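for the writeup, i need someone to sanity check this before i put it in the appendix. the sequnce is what the collaborator sent (i think, or maybe the updated version? ugh). structure was predicted straight from it, no edits. if anything looks off just tell me and ill rerun, i have time this weekend
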Amino acid sequence: MLLIHVPKLTNRLGYTLNVVFHHLLHADYSITTDEQYYLHYGDAKLSYGHKRLDDSLFIKCHPLLFETSIEEQEAGAECRDGQWILFPVYGRNIDFDFDPLAATFFMVTRYEEYLPHREDIHGRFLPEESLAAQAGFLEEPVVDQWARMIAGKIQERYPGYSLPGQSYRFVQTVDIDAAWSYLHKGLFRSVVGMLRDLISRRDPAEVARRIRVLAHRETDPFDTFEYILEQYRKVPESALFFFVLLADYGDYDKPASYLNPHFRQLIQHLDDYAKIGIHPGYNTLELPLKAAAEIKRLEDIIHRPIVYNRFHFLRLKLPRSYRILQHAAMRCDYSMGYPDTVGFRAGISGSYPFYDLERDHETELLIQPFSIMDTTLQKYMRLSPEEGLQTYRRIIDAVRAVDGTFCCIIHNQNLSEVDGWEGWRNTYEQMLEYAR
């Protein structure tokens, strides 16, 4: 067992060791503050603090993990020999030229999102406000890289000691914002939609398609669910999640009614093949009781507790959003990422526990970040299907290099091959093949 010596075990430090050694390296380890016990320990060991204790592996610390306040940090992002680092340290006879534990804590807690920052019109943290985007390492899973660096140093110092480490995983997630474009909307919404196509958009072709679909002479373009399941069967080693929007109709929420029998039947059908999670509506952030109501709707449909979440519009605000999920007994959230750019918002590819920085404690809620979304590629980055595929491959390569978790977001309506999404099915299929 790996023994880790620390001068003082704080909540921040204990949490960071858990993320690195349990969640990333899957190592058996113990922690001690007893210097004499550490000095006489005969197996693999690592010390973290201000001074080296012996000839064992040593990480010189930055003060961050021994603080309790939240304040501006001089992280000092640098790229040294092709590796991005934060919190550089200096001195003779040190094994690391930066503090990888403080750097990990800064990234995975989203420390900078607790500090004053600008937001977009939806109240979301802007990627350009992040150190990763400003320095240029947003597309690097740096936390995974730092963990592997620590593991490499340990195994170099103790050749007989092995760390299990991670295994590459592929997690495909599908957001169902609108199950159908035309069908099962009710008479009022169908009439309003047709009038909008005629008067506002002046698009007779759209009206004709709407009529064909409503007359069941053509498949609804958003109904791509059997296609998604068919593609999933080709990569059975991956995981598949559907996140279902069941909010009341509003400016940003336009699902089919949760009472609609066709919608309920669809959800139950998907539940036979994949994991089902809730996609809380746009106003959940301001009205958290809505989340509880929507979760109850989904539980009533599939007859089991709901434990997976992704916020609609990716409206994630720390720590409020995660406290809402804790209150709702969620087990894992899949909202950690940016809507308008690709990359690793928390610098990490796999799941890890949420740390409430204001309350200074680790929670049981797990966070599974995503690194890329189809809407980001087409809408925000304005890429072609071919350019989108190259971006997928670049992110997948970065994840594979650290044996991490590639988690992506797809939308059923974006596989429709209409309204600007022509050619993206092929991109999706090639991405699945590349990611498997």
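The chain has a mean pLDDT of 95. DSSP finds 14 helices and 15 strands in the chain.
thx in advance!!
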